[in-house]
Amino acid sequence: MTTRTTSFVIALLTTCFAASVLADDDASVRKDLFTVIALQGLPCGEVVSFTTKGDNDHIASCKDGNRYHVFLNAQGRVVVERQ
Prior knowledge:
Layout: H1 3-39, E1 47-54, E2 57-62, E3 67-72, E4 78-82
């Protein structure tokens, strides 16, 4: 293999590995967001996607169409607001 081909293969494998790790992280965050929403007694069903606005600050979209802003307030408490 040439150096150019070897570099391409390494870059491709690194990208695939990073995508796999990010997918695992996404699933974990979706599960955590669902748990927080459910513990607040709000309807959701399942978190299908989320947008990260900042550290511990997310907008969660649920399977049933509901959207929630989930974040930590100044006192360090979890807050869930319907959007």
